[in-house]
Amino acid sequence: MNTILFKLGGIPVSLLELAVGFAALTLLAVLVLARSIAKTNSARLEELAAERERQHELDDKMADLSRMNAELSGRLQSMTEVLSNRQSELARTLGERLDHVGHRVGQGLEASAKSTSDNLAKLGERLAVIDAAQAKISGLTQEVVSLKDILSNKQSRGAFGQGRMEAIIRDGLPIGAYEFQYTLSNGKRPDCVLHLPGDPRVMVVDAKFPLEAFTALRDAAAEDARQFAMGRVRNDLGKHVKDIAERYLLPGETQDMALLFVPSESIYADLMEHFDDVVQRAHRLRVVIVSPSLLMMAVQVTQALVRDAKMREQADVIQREVSVLMQDVRRLGERVGRLDQHFRQTQKDVEEITTSTGKILKRGERIEQVEVGAVANDSTAAPLLSIAE
Fold first, then answer.
1. Do both 181 and 321 map to the same domain?
2. Res 117 pLDDT > 70
3. CB contact at 8 A, 13 and 7
4. Does 247 lie in the same domain as 157?
5. Which domain does 305 fall in, by range?
6. pLDDT one-digit tens code per residue, 36-58
7. Higher pLDDT pick, 293 / 1
8. Where does a domain end: 291, 313, 335?
């Protein structure tokens, strides 16, 4: 048994040692296998325990799920009942609302139909008014055409300016402060003269303003035509101003200046803006160019002068009336003084009457006290009563 079989790293290995080593290895392998089997069994047991635990938990969860399913079924049934009731209420509410809305829509349609009918009636009335206005506009168009014809005719245009000037003067001045178609000593007849108070000289107003050149100026499209029309305006207006100065400015008979009436504010504005040299030449010739508004202002100044002159004419009458009024006031003062004396005398008489009344009252009180004292004494009652009587 101690026979050496081989050497391992210089160490002799016998059969017994080999058998013992093999047995030890076998035992070690068995132990390892047993440990592995034990571990495997332990793991499997743990797995089985875990599986049972999971199964138990799964059973619990299934039980909870069944319970929750039952609760959910109950809740679903309750919700179904609630929803059914709510659906019924909703259907009923919707029915009522639809009936109410239908009623309101019917009323609204009825009111809308009535309003539409009223609006159509009003529209018909307005269309009638518009037709009448259109007829008036047509009439105004004819009048404008007639006015254009008037302005295109020199004589008619002069009559138009004359009429407007006469209307302004008639509206602002009293009768006697003006005259139309007045004849001067040289035989000329201006359109109007104004009588200024306190001055025998008259102020001449001319209404024959030359408008042909202004019409040509406004109709001019090219620059050459415009320059030609402006030159014509200067020539025509300068000639007319010169004629007024020569015909209507008479020393001792007329005022030192005359008025040239322009019947349009726009033409007057163009004249002041573009023809200042012509205006200055007219001023040097003592001819003042006036628009309708300036003529109204001159008429108002003349009216104030006439009013002041009438006041001066009536100054003596006013002074005489004031003197008579002062005499009346003096007499009134004297009468008030006498009335004051009467009042004072009356007040004195009233005070004396009041004093006498007070004395009488005091005596009556004393008599009343004497009567009250006499009730206690029977022997003197008769004389006291006789005194009271």
1. no
2. yes
3. yes
4. yes
5. 146-313
6. 888 887 878 888 888 888 888 88
7. 293
8. 313
30 belongs to a structural domain: no
Dmax over CA atoms of the chain, in Å, equals 201
C-beta of residue 261 within 8 angstroms of C-beta of residue 209: yes
**pLDDT exceeds cutoff 80 at 19:** no
* 270/218 Cα distance (integer angstroms): 10
Q: Same structural domain for residues 271 and 326?
A: no
Neighbours of 159 (CB within 10 A): 13
Query: Is residue 239 assigned to a domain?
Result: yes
Angstrom distance (rounded) from CA 5 to CA 17: 10
| Statement: residue 174 has pLDDT above 60 | yes
175, 305: one domain: yes
Q: How many domains does the chain have?
A: 2
Instruction: Tell which wins on pLDDT, 357 or 319.
Output: 357
Same domain, 212 and 330: no
Would you state the structure tokens that stand for residue 156, as one six-digit string?
């008619």
For 251: left if phi > 0, alpha if psi spans -120 to 50, otherwise beta; the answer is: beta
What is the pLDDT, as a whole number, of residue 252? Answer: 86
The CA distances from residue 105 to 91, 93, 108, 244, 342, in Å, are 20, 18, 5, 82, 89
User: Is the residue at 188 inside a domain?
Assistant: yes
Say if residue 151 is in the same domain as residue 265: yes
For 227-286, what is each residue's pLDDT tens digit?
Answer: 888 888 888 888 888 888 888 888 888 888 888 888 888 888 888 888 888 888 888 989
* pLDDT at site 107: 82
Residue 243: count other Cβ atoms within 10 Å of its Cβ.
14
C-alpha pair distances (Å), 306 with each of 83, 180, 204, 227, 311: 101, 18, 17, 46, 9
Q: Are residues 324 and 342 in the same domain?
A: yes
The continuous run of DSSP H or E covering 351 comes out as helix 315-374
Average pLDDT for 68-73? 83
Domain membership flag for residue 73: no
Same domain, 176 and 283: yes
